[in-house]
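Title: Comparing notes on inverse folding

I've been comparing how different people in this forum approach sequence design from structure. To keep things fair, I'm posting one structure and asking everyone to reply with a full sequence. Here's the target:
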């Protein structure tokens, strides 16, 4: 009896449930009445940017307008990706905006999304749906930080040692399920050569989690240094003394140069084809070039290492002590010059007869001559003419200033006379043209004659 009663109760409840489900299905399939009977408005939907990166904030905007009414549509707009509802926003002055926060549950997964805006309608306007807009979302970048590589001494291998205790993921969006395992991590230098802050590529990391497909993994690197096995030195390099030439360049002799410090089993040799040097010295730790005459150091450059094991070492460029820049020999000769008595002295010039001046170097001072104003020869001497201490003035050849006589013109006038059969004439007046004001001349002897004895006028 009890079993029959229980069966009837269960059957009755099942019948009621079936009736409710049928009523619900009928409600769902029946068309919903429109809120308004007016013309459906036009909807234009835009996004804040495509492509966007997964996890970025994205803003969706819908503008709902109607050409047949001056009234703005009211109500709500539902934004969808395909058939999935993203969110709903109220219209204000015909516009609705919905922002997908970077870590919101409704954030869009990487891929292409067909975005539409569905207007629900109001008392005036019927509902409508926008044309779809494609929004592309790219994968977010996932990085591993906190892994450090240790410095090591050069040993000919690329192996590196890692410290992974502080490893962590950077770039996970919201509460996404992404995991990292570092148990199998390993790393290698790109090569075995000496260098500071060399890149180390880390491999063997294991990534997991149900949301890993939303990310692109950035290669994980670290930096570390490989210190040299030894700093090699060079013996037997010499620098030649040389004559001043205005530069700091030095000439090296590398015939006897050899390396010191190479380990027995390593194949390393010295390359000196590009070697050179500069004169100079250190001043408070800074190298100053030496160009003037004196005793200098020569700092070399350009020596290199060759051989399969060369990159496991560093090389010290040698510095050579006590190298001389000697004075540059030069000789000068005065140029002979002339002048006419009473004129100003011409410039006293000279020519370099041995050697040459370098660059902008020049002589200072001037030549002098023996005093005297009169006609004759006067010796030209070195006077105050000197050159700087980078030169050795080995010789000075003098010359002469020659003063020549000043030409003058003497004019005479004679007295007229009666023909007497002779050419004799009597001087009436004479003058000198070209005579300097301070000088004077006199006629102590002599006379005058006509050119012929015959009668005539304007005779000479």
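Reply #1:
Here's my take.
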């Amino acid at each position: 009896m009890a079993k029959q009663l229980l069966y009837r109760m269960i059957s009755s409840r099942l019948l009621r449930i079936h009736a409710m489900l049928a009523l619900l299905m009928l409600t769902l399939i029946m068309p919903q009445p429109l809120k308004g009977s007016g013309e459906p408005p036009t909807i234009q939907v835009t996004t804040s940017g495509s492509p966007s990166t997964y996890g970025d904030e994205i803003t969706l905007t819908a503008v709902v307008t109607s050409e047949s009414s001056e009234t703005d549509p009211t109500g709500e707009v539902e934004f969808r990706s395909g058939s999935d509802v993203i969110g709903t926003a109220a219209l204000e002055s015909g516009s609705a905006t919905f922002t997908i926060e970077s870590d919101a549950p409704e954030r869009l997964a990487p891929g292409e999304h067909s975005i539409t805006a569905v207007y629900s309608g109001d008392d005036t306007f019927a509902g409508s749906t926008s044309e779809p807009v494609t929004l592309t979302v790219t994968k977010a970048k996932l990085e591993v930080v906190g892994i450090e590589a240790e410095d090591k001494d050069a040993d000919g291998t690329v192996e590196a040692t890692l410290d992974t205790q502080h490893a962590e993921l950077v770039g996970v969006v919201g509460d996404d399920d992404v995991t990292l395992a570092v148990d199998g991590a390993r790393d290698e230098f790109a090569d075995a050569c000496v260098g500071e802050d060399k890149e180390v590529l880390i491999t063997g990391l294991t990534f997991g989690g149900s949301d890993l497909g939303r990310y692109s993994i950035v290669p994980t690197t670290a930096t570390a240094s490989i210190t040299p096995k030894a700093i090699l030195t060079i013996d037997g390099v010499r620098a030649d003394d040389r004559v001043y030439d205005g530069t700091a360049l030095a000439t090296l002799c590398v015939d006897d140069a050899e390396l010191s410090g190479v380990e027995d089993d390593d194949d390393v040799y010295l390359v000196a084809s590009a070697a050179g040097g500069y004169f100079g010295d250190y001043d408070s730790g800074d190298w100053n070039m030496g160009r003037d005459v004196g005793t200098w150091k020569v700092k070399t450059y350009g020596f290199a290492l060759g051989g399969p094991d060369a990159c496991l070492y560093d090389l010290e460029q040698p510095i050579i002590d006590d190298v001389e820049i000697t004075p540059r020999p030069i000789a000068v000769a005065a140029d002979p010059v002339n002048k006419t008595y009473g004129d100003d002295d011409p410039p006293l010039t000279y020519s370099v007869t041995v050697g040459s001046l370098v660059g902008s170097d020049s002589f200072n001072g001037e030549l002098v001559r023996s005093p005297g104003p009169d006609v004759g020869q006067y010796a030209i001497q070195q006077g105050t003419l000197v050159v700087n201490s980078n030169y050795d003035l080995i010789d000075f050849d003098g010359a002469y200033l020659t003063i020549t006589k000043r030409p003058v013109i003497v004019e005479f006038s004679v007295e007229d006379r009666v023909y007497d059969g002779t050419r004799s004439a009597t001087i009436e007046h004479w003058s000198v043209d070209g005579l300097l004001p301070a000088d004077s001349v006199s006629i102590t002897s002599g006379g005058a004659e006509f050119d012929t004895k015959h009668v005539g006028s304007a005779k000479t």
